[in-house]
Amino acid sequence: MKKFWIVLKYELKEYFSNKAFMGLTIFFALLGMLVLFLPRFIDMSGFTGVKIVGDAEVSEGKNPEEEYEQFIYLDQAGVIRADVLQQMFPHVAWQEATSEEAVKEAVESQEAKAGFVVLSPTEYRYYVYNKSMADPNASMFEQAMKLFYRMDYCEKSGVNLEELSAIYDVPVSMDWQILNKDTESNFWYCYALVIIVFMLIIYYGQMISVSVTTEKSNRAIEVLVTSTSSNSLLFGKVIAGAIAGVFQMGLVLGATLVAYQFNREQWGGMLDMILHIPAEVLVAFAFFGLGGYLFYAFLYGAMGALVSKTEDVSKSSSGLVLVVMGVYFFALFQLTNVDGTVIKVLSFLPISSYSTMFARIAMGTVAVWEILLSFLILVLSILGTGFLGAKLYRMGTLRYGNPIKLRTAIKDIRKIDD
User: Fold this and answer.
1) Which helix (H) or strand (E) covers residue 224, if one does?
2) How many CA atoms, within 13 angstroms, populate the side-chain half-sphere of residue 338?
3) Is the CB of residue 252 less than 8 Å from the CB of residue 29?
4) Angle at CA 319, nearest 5°, toward 339 and 189?
């Protein structure tokens, strides 16, 4: 145990005395805080909808001087009513064209953001320079066309448009009563946390692999294995990496969350979906995220011991990277169905519970026994992986030359145990 503490202290000293490590940690923590404090010093009402400078609230709502967008239209059917169109598009300056070619040229030269050519009371052509993924203009103009059609019909038939609209567009009110979790609101911060723990595993896992391989390539491992056990070496390196990773990620994430809570009113609550994370989700993320990191970190350490050159690390750990990435993408795709069978199964597997269980806690229905069982399986898997990794580490440390295949290494361990 004493040797483990010696290794742990040495590895931690290597991390915290590294100027690049500490510099990046402080830089990103301060950057996150600076961005979230901006509304106190700069008028960002056009983005946040809340105009607050310093601690004094000046006004609320969108900037009344918001710049108008330029749209152009050609009415070949004679159905457009300019006053109604302006009401439906309050932040648009409309220009009437004399020909369809003029509409096309205006949009192509980007003098107008969008162009509409009405061919008949129920048909129009929409011109846009670049089609975005979310373009509401076409659907809004379609609603305007439907309204023009009803207005013309009512005038010709002598029907009262207001009475017809009252029947056709009867208002229906709904009051949400959420008795458990709001999946839609909680989705984005779960999405962000899954990405964070994935980055933690990939970045620090590779760092541990390189650290082990470097000692092997410069023959320092030959001295280390004679003075301490492989268990102490591997566990010391992995736990030190975990502490360093939690410190770095915790400082950056913690500074960002605290800064947002302090400036939440200035942001008008618009970042709640990412940065307003409930305490129970953060606790679950801390336990399962750290557990998943340790599980993979031991495997990364063992992969580093199977090669003799740092340039071979990526080849040795490529299979492990594929597993991590596969779990990452699969977990993201399943976030929209957290009460489904697939994600329930994944939340009990140690390769994926680090991301899927806290997602279920945040967005779905999960019993306390399920959380405890999942965490128990993860802890036992960490210990099993740790001792297996230590055996691979011990077996591979004094083997040089070509990279050792994992299958061959496991067979050799079985022979040694027998």
Assistant:
1) helix 220-227
2) 23
3) yes
4) 35
Tokens 């962000």 found at: 192
Report the distance separating Cα 394 and Cα 198, nearest Å.
28
Nearest Cα residue to 378 out of 319, 303, 290, 297: 290
Helix-then-strand count for the chain, H and E: 18, 6
Per-residue model confidence as pLDDT tens digits over 215-239 = 666 555 555 655 667 677 778 877 8
Residues in Cβ contact with 227 at an 8 Å cutoff, skipping those fewer than 6 apart: 3
d(C-alpha 353, C-alpha 284), whole Å: 11
Token pair belonging to 395: 């077996």
335-388: per-residue pLDDT in tens?
A: 888 888 888 888 899 998 988 888 888 888 888 899 999 999 999 998 888 888
Pick the closest to residue 375 from 296, 297, 290 (CA basis).
Answer: 290
Measured between alpha carbons, how far is 328 from 355 in angstroms, rounded to an integer?
8
Contact between 141 and 116 (Cβ < 8 Å): yes
Cα dihedral value 94, 96, 101, 105, nearest 10: -30
CA distance 185 to 191: 11
pTM: 0.69
Query: What whole-number distance in Å separates Cα of residue 266 and Cα of residue 272?
Result: 12
Over the stretch 272-314, which tens digit does the pLDDT of each residue have?
A: 888 878 888 888 888 888 888 888 888 887 787 777 677 777 7
Cα 415 from chain centroid (whole Å): 45
Burial of 139 (0-12, 13-18, 19+ CB in 10 A): exposed
The four Cα atoms 152, 155, 157, 160 give a dihedral, to 10 degrees, of: 110
Q: Tell me how far apart the alpha carbons of residues 214 and 224 are, in angstroms, rounded to a whole number.
A: 13
Question: What does the DSSP 8-state code read for residue 135?
Answer: -
Which among 242, 224, 216, 410 has a CA at the least distance from the CA of 313?
A: 216
CB-CB contact of 283 with 197 (8 Å): no
Closest CA to 393 of 232, 261, 275: 232
| Span between the terminal Cα atoms of the chain, in Å | 27
CB 340 within 8 A of CB 334: yes
> How many angstroms separate the CA atoms of 206 and 44, rounded?
40
CA–CA gap between residue 28 and residue 361 (Å, rounded):
28
